[in-house]
């Protein structure tokens, strides 16, 4: 499928945010009090050879530590979500905007469970080539779906072997802030259409006006790292995704991120605390 939208790779545009998240996971994996272990994150970051990222590591080690504190919580929460979903009988997982997420490789999936990863082509190509070189072996039936989520991604997912009659666990982690309102509405409508009874979705959600997530501190720092977060985040007005799903008959649960963080026994200073205060994780279930 040829996209009319702009393309990015792992060191440009919003692709760079996936690299920054992988760097945070690498840091988290080395903490004494780590909440997750991603053994591939460091290799992925090294392979990208991004001067902006090297700059980030040198100039803002403390800041990266803070952000990794938040991202460690987020990663752990969604790891547990997937493991519970798999134990509860879902047969497919779809990671929307997977970036450098390595769950298909590092989680203990039931035999044969299909994990679909959707992201832009160059992001997935970089990830596949790097993980191949490292010798990583997926612990699932992993399928990549290189497509833009503003295009007809449903057809691409179908072609990759998705079976809409099977219960599915969907994930939108670090995605919705970047999507225009129309693409988000399409995304939720497609998920609703493709979700058999027993399906579920988990979403990282920021409450309040979008402009407020990007404090001056975060904005300036991200700019130093080559990411213009203000330009990357969509400020379109849109309905709350939990309410959209509830309106379509899903059972919706919201967990404030600061409560999740406290539950893991972690304190998040500075910006991490701000993200946890503004955020919640929405998990929705389709019973029938
Ligand atoms: C902050 S990263 C999060 C990556 C991953 N979910 C994680 O937590 O590690 C944002 C990701 O969204 C992807 N993305 C943003 N807009 C997209 C779109 N329209 N189509 C496909 N991928 C998109 C980017 O390529 C990038 O990998």
TrEMBL record:
Q: Cite the SUPFAM superfamilies for this sequence.
A: S-adenosyl-L-methionine-dependent methyltransferases (SSF53335)
A GO molecular function assigned to this protein is: methyltransferase activity
Question: Does the keyword S-adenosyl-L-methionine feature in the UniProt annotation?
Answer: yes
The cross-references to InterPro entries, in alphabetical order and at most eight, read: Ppm1/Ppm2/Tcmp, SAM-dependent_MTases_sf, SAM_mthyl_Trfase_ML2640-like
Function according to Swiss-Prot or TrEMBL? Exhibits S-adenosyl-L-methionine-dependent methyltransferase activity.
Family membership, please give it.
Belongs to the UPF0677 family.
The name this protein carries in UniProt is S-adenosyl-L-methionine-dependent methyltransferase
């Amino acid at each position: 499928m040829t996209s009319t939208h702009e393309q990015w790779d792992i060191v440009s545009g919003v692709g760079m945010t996936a690299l920054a998240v992988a760097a945070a996971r690498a840091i988290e994996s080395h903490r004494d009090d780590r909440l997750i272990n991603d053994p591939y994150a460091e290799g992925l970051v090294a392979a990208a050879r991004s001067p902006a990222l090297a700059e980030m590591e040198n100039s803002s080690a403390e800041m990266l530590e803070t952000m990794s504190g938040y991202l460690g919580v987020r990663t752990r929460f969604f790891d547990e979500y997937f493991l519970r979903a798999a134990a509860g009988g879902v047969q497919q997982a779809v990671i929307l905007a997977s970036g450098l997420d390595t769950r298909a490789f590092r989680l203990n999936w039931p035999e044969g469970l299909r994990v679909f990863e959707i992201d832009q082509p160059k992001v997935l190509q970089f990830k596949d080539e790097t993980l191949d070189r490292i010798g990583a072996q997926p612990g699932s039936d992993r399928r990549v779906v290189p497509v833009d989520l503003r295009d007809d991604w449903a057809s691409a997912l179908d072609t990759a072997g998705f079976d809409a009659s099977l219960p599915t666990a969907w994930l939108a982690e670090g995605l919705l802030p970047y999507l225009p309102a129309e693409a988000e509405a399409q995304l939720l409508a497609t998920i609703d259409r493709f979700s058999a009874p027993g399906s579920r979705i988990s979403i990282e959600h920021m409450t309040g006006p979008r402009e407020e997530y990007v404090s001056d501190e975060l904005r300036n720092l991200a700019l130093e790292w080559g990411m213009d977060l203000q330009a990357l985040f969509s400020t379109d007005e849109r309905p709350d995704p939990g309410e959209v799903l509830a309106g379509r008959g899903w059972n919706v649960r919201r967990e404030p991120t600061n409560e999740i963080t406290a539950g893991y026994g972690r304190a998040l200073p500075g910006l991490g605390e701000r993200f946890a205060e503004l955020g919640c994780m929405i998990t929705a279930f389709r019973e029938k």
